[in-house]
């Protein structure tokens, strides 16, 4: 598994149980769309009973086409995202780069945060027919091609600020030493206020949230994999004490670190 795939996988809570319920594949974006799109994801499921999946989402926008006719743009989800799937189906998603959805909007990406919009609200009424064709297409490569065509028809313009936003989010996700907004601002050679404006305009949420979300994804991944010394992990993630770490983890995941680790561990050992 590549570093990028590992970063993506950290968003899925209780990942081994999830792998028993559905298959998640990834495909690269076409070269001409890489200034905007990080890649495609394709979810397949066939279930005898409903499954509710929690996701600790990344700071990116998704365009999703789902069995049953749903075509949505989902902004950054600041809380834990929970989705229920049942029966047999497929969801095909375009995962935009941090900041990569800005050319498709007439407003900052922060206007999408914690919102789910029908595709017509951003791409116009004609997008509904394109979405229906993508959902109905049984061949994944063809469906992906149709989705790419939908974006190309919008004629987005590359923006160097997208590259800057993406690089800064990648820095947060890959450099465990970056624990403070002031550190990130120094790396970006920007003031804290300039950094906050960049994130609001392009990423859709503040850098402090992105840093905390990366820490919680790392903590959840560690907890699901192996027993942890919570005090040591809290210190490693930049917390002054274990109590503060536990409060943040519980608020983000919905349960305490110990309970999450116990639940995931029992499932993983079964």
Automatic annotation (TrEMBL):
<keyword id="KW-0805">Transcription regulation</keyword>
<dbReference type="InterPro" id="IPR009057">
    <property type="entry name" value="Homeodomain-like_sf"/>
</dbReference>
<dbReference type="InterPro" id="IPR018060">
    <property type="entry name" value="HTH_AraC"/>
</dbReference>
<keyword id="KW-0804">Transcription</keyword>
<dbReference type="Pfam" id="PF20240">
    <property type="entry name" value="DUF6597"/>
</dbReference>
<dbReference type="InterPro" id="IPR046532">
    <property type="entry name" value="DUF6597"/>
</dbReference>
<keyword id="KW-0238">DNA-binding</keyword>
<dbReference type="InterPro" id="IPR050204">
    <property type="entry name" value="AraC_XylS_family_regulators"/>
</dbReference>
<dbReference type="Pfam" id="PF12833">
    <property type="entry name" value="HTH_18"/>
</dbReference>
<feature type="domain" description="HTH araC/xylS-type">
    <location>
        <begin position="163"/>
        <end position="263"/>
    </location>
</feature>
<protein>
    <submittedName>
        <fullName>AraC family transcriptional regulator</fullName>
    </submittedName>
</protein>
């Amino acid at each position: 598994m590549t570093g990028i795939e590992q970063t993506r996988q950290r968003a899925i809570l209780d990942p081994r149980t999830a792998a028993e319920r559905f298959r998640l594949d990834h495909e690269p974006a076409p070269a001409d769309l890489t200034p905007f799109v990080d890649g495609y994801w394709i979810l397949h499921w066939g279930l005898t009973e409903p499954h509710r999946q929690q996701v600790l989402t990344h700071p990116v926008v998704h365009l999703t086409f789902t069995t049953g006719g749903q075509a949505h743009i989902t902004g950054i989800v600041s809380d834990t995202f929970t989705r229920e799937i049942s029966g047999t189906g497929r969801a095909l998603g375009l995962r935009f780069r941090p900041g990569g959805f800005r050319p498709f909007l007439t407003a900052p990406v922060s206007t999408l945060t914690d919102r789910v919009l029908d595709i017509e609200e951003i791409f116009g009424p004609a997008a509904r027919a394109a979405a229906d064709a993508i959902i109905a297409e049984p061949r994944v490569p063809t469906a992906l091609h149709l989705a790419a065509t939908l974006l190309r028809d919008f004629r987005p313009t590359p923006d160097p600020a997208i590259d800057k936003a993406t690089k800064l989010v990648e820095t947060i996700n890959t450099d465990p030493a970056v624990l403070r907004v002031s550190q990130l601002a120094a790396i970006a050679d920007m003031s804290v206020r300039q950094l906050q404006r960049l994130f609001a305009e392009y990423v859709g949420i503040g850098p402090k949230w992105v840093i905390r979300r990366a820490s919680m994804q790392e903590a959840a991944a560690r907890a699901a994999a192996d027993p942890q010394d919570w005090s040591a992990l809290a210190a490693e993630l930049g917390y002054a004490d274990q109590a503060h770490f536990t409060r943040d983890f519980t608020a983000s995941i919905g349960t305490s670190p110990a309970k999450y680790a116990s639940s995931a561990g029992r499932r993983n050992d079964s």
